[in-house]
Recover the amino acids of this structure.
């Protein structure tokens, strides 16, 4: 089936499945405004959304504005966020982020990709999430999970996150990017894990992944066959 479908037809079918499974996916990170979302996304690297959703409100209670965040000692920020991964680096970035927002942007999160990417600790993916989820601007944030799914489904060549983003944007209509980003996150968590995944039984991988892709994942130890053999 996968080999007989054009990339456009495959993308359309994938979108239909995701729309059926997740017609209105919620933003997984709790936030009250663009600033708290920016903080939450920065905190989310190498940790779980559940942990971020526990930590962010505690930090926002003490520092609800960029100026207040900049005024907190770095050690205090680190103490509040100590449960998340990379806490020392994130604490330094958060203090610098607060200071730059207060000094250069009037205490507001800029609605501009380039300006966001200049903030401490904010990379392209974080900026894309804020543009999409805080401001509703079309963006297609690609994390490691979406990068993996796009390669499994034959929608990207898997060479880099940047190329995956460009290839997904080319495969889907601009108006659907923000929704698809969330749908793919939820699908990856529920149906399509990184390891021990039964590609044949997956609602999308079962028909979208090529035989070569399935064989490659099994050789790499990410497919169900290898996991069972090792177990």
């Amino acid at each position: 089936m996968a080999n007989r479908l054009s990339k456009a037809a495959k993308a359309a079918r994938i979108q239909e499945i995701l729309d059926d499974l997740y017609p209105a996916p919620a933003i997984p990170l709790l936030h009250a405004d663009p600033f708290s979302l920016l903080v939450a996304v920065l905190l989310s690297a190498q940790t779980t959304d559940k942990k971020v959703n526990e930590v962010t409100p505690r930090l926002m209670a003490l520092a609800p504005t960029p100026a207040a965040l900049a005024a907190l000692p770095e050690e205090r920020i680190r103490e509040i966020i100590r449960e998340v991964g990379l806490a020392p680096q994130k604490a330094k970035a958060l203090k610098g982020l607060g200071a730059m927002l207060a000094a250069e942007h009037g205490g507001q999160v800029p609605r501009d990709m380039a300006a966001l990417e200049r903030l401490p600790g904010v990379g392209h993916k974080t900026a894309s999430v804020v543009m999409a989820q805080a401001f509703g601007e079309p963006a297609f944030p690609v994390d490691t999970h979406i990068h993996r799914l796009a390669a499994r489904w034959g929608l990207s060549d898997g060479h880099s996150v940047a190329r995956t983003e460009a290839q997904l944007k080319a495969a889907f209509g601009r108006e659907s990017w923000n929704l698809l980003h969330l749908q793919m996150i939820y699908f990856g968590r529920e149906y399509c894990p990184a390891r021990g995944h039964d590609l044949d039984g997956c609602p999308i991988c079962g028909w979208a992944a090529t035989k070569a892709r399935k064989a490659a994942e099994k050789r790499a130890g990410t497919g169900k066959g290898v996991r069972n053999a090792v177990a």
Confidence is low (pLDDT under 50) at residues 223-231. The CA atoms of residues 52 and 69 lie 17 Å apart. The first helix runs from residue 7 to 21. The chain has two domains: 2-24+141-230, 34-133.
